[in-house]
Amino acid sequence: MGAQGSAWNLRPDGFPRFDPVLAHEALALSFSTYPAAGDEERCFATWRSYGYGDLVYLASCRAAIGVRREPSGRTLVAIGFRGTFDAEDLLLDLDLLDASHPETHRGFLRRCETAECEAEALRLPSLGGRTLAALMRDGEGDASLSFLAVGHSLGGAAAALFTARALGRIPDGRRLACTFGCPTYASKEEVERRNPQPILNLVNEHDFVAVAPQKVLPTERRYAWGRYGRDLRGRVSESRMAWIHLIREHDGGVYSQLIDRLSREGAV
User: Which among 30, 175, 244, 259 counts the fewest CB atoms within 10 Å?
Assistant: First the structure.
């Protein structure tokens, strides 16, 4: 991913490079969003430990937002989406297709659209009280602003869709998403149309949530699902039966180990 003062160096193919330090931070921010509404302080404690202020938790879209001033003088605006935690989230997971948007998973798109609506009203005091939506619009020409979106599972899908849609006007070197255990959510045609995107998807090859949808959904081209950006795949366990441990292979501990393993193997 190549973080340099919150301006990210992309590979020649337009996809993000792998940076284990930033990946660990993104993982911590992603999993910090899991506390239920009303217990946001646990989430904020993690974000503060990484230097973020102006912290807000948006219950409607299950997302945390923070702002960090970088030593380079840049300002980083980060948003972390929560994954599946309660019954409402599960209903989004199961809300697959919409005739008006047949190319995108409807439930995940709804979570992204809710965040886009919240951005219109959310004001960030340290950035002159401007709304998040205004920052995303103004950021196109403001080289001091960078944006990071992170998420695990459902939250990863929401982060990727938010990066491709709401942050689509921001130059690629100043917007980035990092996802973990993200399910597939877009048709192959839609992925090909939007790529390359500055999105890095960490995929544990034994994680049923991240891998299985590509195998169990219909295989016709229109319904072959994928993800925006670049998949960086690996595994922690060499056992062929590891996928049976559904929760363990999808949790943060395994993804932390995966980051370390990819780093040792020289992933770029």
Answer: 244
At residue 140 the predicted structure's pLDDT band, cuts being 50, 70 and 90, is confident
Alpha-carbon gap, residue 139 to 163, rounded angstroms? 13
Q: How confident is the model at residue 101 (pLDDT cuts 50, 70, 90)?
A: low
As beta bridge partners, residue 214 has none
For 4-45, what is each residue's pLDDT tens digit?
Answer: 444 677 888 889 999 999 999 999 999 999 976 667 898 999
The answer to whether 76 touches 64, Cβ cutoff 8 Å, is no
Cα separation of 246 and 197, whole Å?
29
**Helices 40-49, 20-32: inter-axial angle, 10-degree rounding:** 160
CATH of the domain at 245: 3.40.50.1820
The 3-class SS string of 136-153 reads HHHCCCCCCEEEEEEEEC
Residue ranges making up the domain that contains 249: 3-264
Residue in this structure with the two tokens 């949530």, named with its chain if needed: 209
Q: What is the pLDDT of residue 249?
A: 86
Amino acid 5: pLDDT: 46
Q: Quick one: tokens of 256?
A: 């932390």
Give the separation between CA 12 and CA 10, rounded to whole angstroms: 7
252-264 helix and 20-32 helix, angle to the nearest 10 degrees: 180
What are 143's two structure tokens?
Answer: 């080289």
Look up the pTM and report it: 0.90
Q: How many domains does the chain have?
A: 1
Distance between CA atoms of residues 155 and 195, nearest Å: 20
CA distances from 146 to 19, 139, 170, 255 (A): 17, 8, 8, 25
